[in-house]
Structures are given as structure tokens and as C-alpha cells.
Write a structure and sequence with these properties.
Elements (H helix, E strand, L loop, with lengths): L1 E5 L10 H14 L5 E6 L12 E4 L13 H7 L5 H10 L25 H18 L4 E5 L4 H11 L3 E5 L3 H4 L6 H13 L2 E4 L2 H10 L7 E3 L9 H7 L11 E6 L8 H14 L3 E6 L5 H10 L6 E5 L4 H8 L3 E4 L9 H7 L4 E4 L12 E3 L4 H13 L1 H15 L4 H15 L4
Parallel strand pairs: 1-2, 1-4, 2-3, 4-5, 5-6, 6-7, 8-9, 8-11, 9-10, 11-12, 12-13
Helix pairs in contact: 1-16, 4-5, 5-7, 10-14, 13-15
């Protein structure tokens, strides 16, 4: 089965959970052996793992056809020029790009990030998707998150193939309900055109059904997973100091410091814990538009000497942070899924998550509190940091549970939906 996927991030260059999830589910799908996955990225760096999929750099796809005798055009169309394809490309693509700058091979440049002109890049990406859809052979389309929904729609219109969209988050999650109408429109348009909507949790599925008015029969919960720790990462986390030997315990928040993630509730809970005991430190690892506000809030609460802000973490730094942590906290106001608690538990760090987190639907051996209930959160932190028996139990059982949540199982569930769409199962 051949799948044309549209994404925005891919490891090792990631800015959030989208790239991590895209890597996991594509590798989980590829494990089945008969899956042929082509993954489109705006501007890949070239060091991505291509051992199990093909990557198309959208910033290297020519879209302006200047001279049919150019070598790159012959390479794209093969030795035999297809007059109809050439006509389609000239008539349908060139006019779309009037006024848009291209490089020396006729391709559009992309930042591959989230620039100020993001909506322009999303639009350009969708038009390039039409070119790719004409060039590639595939059975269906799979678009990840709202940035790629227009690309998925265009590819569907060009090819007539079924469209799967993967809802990793909605603007209701990112904005605490203060929805951007432009983003909402893009999200809803993608859902309206989709033949199948995969949501990273039942929580997200209900948002899609109720807020975007989608048919429940085409919406499915598709929870995320984690991969087993590599030997290299195992060596990192194995250097953790035993709980009983640490005079000071470390409680960590790791993620984007934005209103979706509820960072202020973490700081307020930290204040309550520090008022009870001084042998606990707090770490808020990450970056975001609320970081300065959180530094100021910590100062206002008089705990600046007990809370640290090391900045954005990725790669080995994430697991080095887990190695040095005794408790992980994710107090998200609205979290479609949340992979980081799984990674923390996998690393042997007992976790506290908000009841408003999608990953809570599949996790048992963690503590769940309402994001706003800072007293319950503080009690849970204090218990895990002061009760060695309880901490050891949650560490052991959490690791065993997460080890059973694999991307291969997710890939099998996704494949079942593919087969159903194509009438094969």
C-alpha cells in the first residue's frame, strides 16, 4: 500500500510533539513491511531517518515551468514527455504562482518552522502538494495537523484518492477557547473534506464532533505511543541517583510555556509545596510566550531561589532532565494527548497529569488531578517526594505500563482504517 503523507516537522529537528508523533506512527506503519510511505516536508534538513520512508523536500519541487528543455524538467517527467501532464502543470500551476518568488529551479522556499507569514507558507505548501500529487503514485493521502490540511485537500482534488486527516490538536486546545477564526476555518475545511478523521484521543474526538460538527462515524480515537528507549538513552537515564540518596528532590515541567500547558498552575503548586518543605526544587524546562510571566510570578511568590528555567530542551537534554527529576508534572488546561508523560514514565519518573489530558485515557499508573486544583497537585508532589515506597511503586509500575504502549500497535490500527477506506477489509 502506498501512502502520500503531508507533515510539518520530523526528527531530529522538532519544535513540539507533532514531529515526534509523525516519526512514531510512520515507523509503526512501516513495520508491517508492505507499506510504502512518502512523507512531504516543507524544508527538511537532510539528516532525517529515511530508512523506512521516502521524504520529499517541498522546497525542491519545481512549480514554475520556464523551459521544457531544462534538465530538471526532463528528470521530473522521465525520458518520455507526457504532453497532457505538461499541459496540466502549465495551465493549473503557473497561474497559481503569479507574483510568488521562486528559486533558480523554480521551487518555492519554506522556512520549515512557524514564521510570521505562516499562513502564506501553508497556502504555498498546499499548491506544491498539487504538483506532488500529479507526480506520485499512491493509494491514499494522510495529512498531519491543520497546517497540512489544505495540502491534503488539494492532493485529493488532483488525484481523487481518499483523504485521512490526523488531528494532533485543535485551536480550542491551543487558545483555551479563544479560537482564531482563520485557523478554525482551515481546520473545519480539512475535516469537511476528509474521508477519515483520526484524533489523538477521545477527548479530541469529542471536540471534533461537537465544535467542528463532524459525523461521528468518520471520527476515530488514535492514541499516540512511545518507542523503547535506545541503548544510548538507557545509558543516560541509568545514571540516575537513587531516590533515598538525594537530599533535594526535583520536580519538572517540560514543554511549551504557553497558556495551553497551564504553567501558572505549576508555579502556584510549587509555592504550596515549598511552604511545606524546603528540600524540593522545581524545574520549568521549555520556552514560550508565557516564560517571562512565569519568571515574574515565581519572583512574586517568593520562590525564585527554588525554581529554575533552563530553556527549550530536545534530544539527549530531555532525557538528561528526566534522569535528574524525581517527579514529572503536566498541568495542561487542554492536552489532546501529551507524549511527554509517557517518556517520563518510561525513564522511571512518576508523573502527575491533568484530567484534561488525552494520554490519561490510556494511563493508569500515574496521578491525575484537575489542572486548576493546585492543592491536589501540591499534595501529589509532596507525597511522591517524601514517601520512598510510594515513589518506587509508581516508578516501577509506570515503566511497565508504558512499555506496552507501542507505535507498532498504533500502526496496525491505522492500517485497519486504511484498508476499510480502500475496501480491503
Amino acid at each position: 500500500m502506498k501512502v502520500l503523507m503531508f507533515g510539518w516537522e520530523f526528527p531530529p529537528h522538532i519544535l513540539g510533539g507533532l514531529g515526534t508523533a509523525s516519526y512514531g506512527l510512520t515507523k509503526g506503519l512501516a513495520a508491517q513491511g508492505d507499506m510504502d510511505i512518502t512523507f512531504c516536508l516543507p524544508a527538511p534538513w537532510g539528516d532525517e531517518d529515511k530508512s523506512f520512508l521516502h521524504i520529499i523536500p517541498m522546497n525542491h519541487v519545481p512549480v514554475v515551468w520556464r523551459d521544457p528543455d531544462q534538465a530538471w524538467l526532463k528528470e521530473r517527467l522521465g525520458n518520455q514527455m507526457d504532453p497532457q501532464l505538461y499541459y496540466d502543470l502549465r495551465s493549473n500551476i503557473y497561474s497559481d504562482f503569479s507574483g510568488i518568488g521562486t528559486n533558480d529551479i523554480g521551487a518555492i522556499e519554506f522556512s520549515g518552522r512557524y514564521p510570521e507569514n505562516l499562513h502564506e507558507e501553508i497556502n504555498n505548501y498546499s499548491i506544491v502538494a498539487g504538483v506532488v500529487a500529479r507526480q506520485q503514485q499512491f493509494d491514499l493521502i494522510h495529512a498531519h495537523d491543520w497546517l497540512t490540511y489544505p495540502a491534503g485537500i488539494h492532493a485529493k482534488q488532483v488525484s481523487g484518492k481518499p483523504l485521512v486527516i490526523h488531528v494532533h490538536a485543535t485551536d480550542f486546545d491551543r487558545s483555551r477557547g479563544q479560537v482564531n477564526p482563520t485557523v478554525y476555518s482551515i481546520e473545519k475545511d480539512g475535516m469537511d473534506h476528509a474521508d477519515c478523521i483520526m484524533c489523538v484521543s477521545e477527548l479530541t474526538r469529542q471536540t471534533v464532533i461537537n465544535q467542528y460538527h463532524q459525523d461521528p462515524n468518520k471520527c476515530f480515537a488514535m492514541h499516540n505511543a512511545v518507542y523503547p528507549l535506545s541503548q544510548h538513552v538507557q545509558e543516560i537515564v541509568s545514571k540516575r541517583r537513587p531516590f533515598r540518596e538525594k537530599k533535594e528532590k526535583v520536580v519538572t515541567f517540560l514543554g511549551r510555556i504557553t497558556m495551553q500547558k497551564g504553567p501558572e498552575y505549576f508555579v502556584e503548586a510549587a509555592k504550596m509545596v515549598i511552604d511545606r518543605t524546603r528540600n524540593i526544587r522545581f524545574c520549568m524546562a521549555g520556552s514560550g510566550d508565557m516564560m517571562v510571566d512565569m519568571i515574574e510570578l515565581a519572583a512574586h511568590r517568593g520562590i525564585s531561589d527554588r525554581i529554575h528555567f533552563p530553556g527549550f530542551m530536545k534530544g539527549d537534554a530531555v532525557f538528561e532532565t528526566f534522569r535528574d527529576s524525581d517527579v514529572y508534572v503536566m498541568p495542561s488546561v487542554s492536552e489532546p494527548f501529551g507524549i511527554s508523560p509517557l517518556e517520563a514514565m518510561q525513564s522511571g519518573v512518576p508523573s502527575i497529569i491533568s484530567k484534561q489530558s488525552g494520554c490519561g485515557e490510556i494511563l493508569t499508573n500515574c496521578i491525575k488531578t484537575d489542572y486548576w486544583d493546585i492543592e491536589a497537585m501540591a499534595d501529589a508532589i509532596h507525597a511522591l517526594c517524601t514517601n520512598e515506597t510510594y515513589h518506587d511503586y509508581m516508578e516501577r509500575e509506570g515503566r511497565l505500563e508504558v512499555d506496552q504502549i507501542t507505535w507498532e500497535k498504533v500502526g496496525q490500527r491505522i492500517r485497519a482504517h486504511y484498508d476499510r477506506l480502500l475496501g480491503r477489509g
